[in-house]
Amino acid sequence: MRNRLVFILSAVGLILAVLSAYVFSVQPKPPPPVFTPTANPYGRGIYCEGMIESEQAQGVNINIYPEVPGVVTRVFVNEGQSVRQGDALLSIDDSVQRATSEQLRAQSEAALAMLNELKAQPRPETLAVAGAQVDNAAASLRTARDQLEKQRRSYDMDPKSVSRNDLDNAANTERVAATNLDVVRRQYELIKAGAWRYDIENQERTYTALSKAYLASAALLAKYTLRAPADGIVMTLPASPGSYVSAQGAYNTYTQGFDPLIVMGRPQKRLQVRAYIDEILINELPDRSNIKAQMFIRGTSEQLPLSPTSRPRSSFPISARSWSTCGCCR
After folding, report:
1. What pLDDT is recorded for position 67?
2. Are residues 137 and 174 in the same domain?
3. What pLDDT digit, counting tens, does each position of 237-295 carry?
4. CB–CB of 152/192 below 8 Å?
5. Total domain count for the chain?
6. Cα–Cα distance between 59 and 273 in angstroms, integer?
7. Has residue 18 been placed in a domain?
8. For 195, which DSSP code?
9. Backbone angle region of 304, left / alpha / beta, with phi > 0 → left and psi within -120 to 50 → alpha
10. Is 80 domain-assigned?
11. 313 lies in which domain range?
């Protein structure tokens, strides 16, 4: 009985092994390609890498780099969108710079208020108080002189009627009152003359310096919003809200380098392809009038015929970041 059970288990194991070998030996059917692979349409051809750019006299695109680093907060345009000169393209976090600009603006306004205060002197109320002090000092002087004159007359009539000490005190009181009147009169004239011209000039320079500092800060604040330098089309915009950008541009994780933050082309319906051909293959190219070429957009099935005189016959949206492979006949 035991040998029979062992024989049955062995047979089952053998069957399972054969089934497993068959199942794992069957090759799965490959999925269809995402796009049609690039094929050379010519009998003989040269393959080269290139990039799409706007057709300009200089043959280059408009590369836009930020002048200030920071985190992108908002993107106002999309690739392929037409823009006018001065349109906002992208904004960078400006919270710190905005606060600095507001602080300088407040300091500039405070300096201007102080300057206007100096120019408005004397204040009528202050001048009135100084005038009242002059009148009070003049009255005190008259009282002191009257007292001194009375005591001198009494002393002249009878030296025993007024002590010499009282007479000296009255004379001292009269001199103090005269000095006090002279001081308050000078103070009145000083207030009446207004602010010193040197104080005004110093305050003017302070206000000018703070105003220029505010204008410089406001100009820097404006650079946190990138605007279109000319009419054109946005061809490449690799940045997105939350990404960090610097004066070197946007970091490309694929190439591990920095690309322009925004690439613009001139407003036109025609684009051109810049192809990079190895120098050892240049002699293999035919005459320019006989060159035929096609462009293959990497990662797509699009194939665009290229010609110096014809327009690309395709509705495929082309962007400057779409690197292409060109096949040229030879």
Report:
1. 92
2. yes
3. 888 899 899 888 888 777 777 888 898 887 666 677 777 777 787 777 777 677 778 78
4. no
5. 3
6. 10
7. no
8. S
9. beta
10. yes
11. 33-55+268-330
Joined together, the tokens standing for residue 72 give: 């992108």
88 in the same domain as 233: yes
- Give the list of residues 6+ apart from residue 47 with CB closer than 8 angstroms, or none: 40, 325, 326, 327
pTM of the model: 0.62
For residue 4, give both structure tokens: 């029979």
Asked whether the predicted pLDDT for residue 129 surpasses 80, the reply is: yes
What does the angle CA 42 – CA 272 – CA 311 come to, to the nearest 5 degrees? 70
By CB atoms closer than 10 A (0-12, 13-18, 19+), residue 21 is: exposed
Q: What is the model's pLDDT at position 294?
A: 79
Q: How many residues does the chain have?
A: 330
Reading the block at residue 35, the tokens are 């796009």
Residue 86, φ and ψ in degrees, nearest 5: 95, -10
Q: Tell me, what CATH number does 74's domain have?
A: 2.40.50.100
- Do 202 and 300 share a domain, yes or no? no
Nearest to 60 by CA among 52, 69, 68: 52
Residues 171 and 71 occupy one common structural domain: no
80, 161: one domain: no
- For 165-216, how does the pLDDT look when each residue is reduced to its tens digit (9 = 90+)? 888 888 899 999 999 999 999 999 999 999 999 999 999 999 999 999 999 9
Share of the chain above pLDDT 70, in %: 82
Whose tokens are 């106002």? That residue is: 76
Residues 87 and 231 in one domain: yes
Cα separation, 47 vs 275, in Å, equals 10
pLDDT of residue 268: 66
Tokens standing for residue 152 = 């001198």
Q: How far apart are CA 137 and CA 176, in angstroms?
A: 10
Q: Please check whether residue 123 lies inside any domain of the structure.
A: yes
Specify if 274 maps to a domain.
Answer: yes
Amino acid (1-letter code) at residue 280: I
Q: Are residues 147 and 43 in the same domain?
A: no
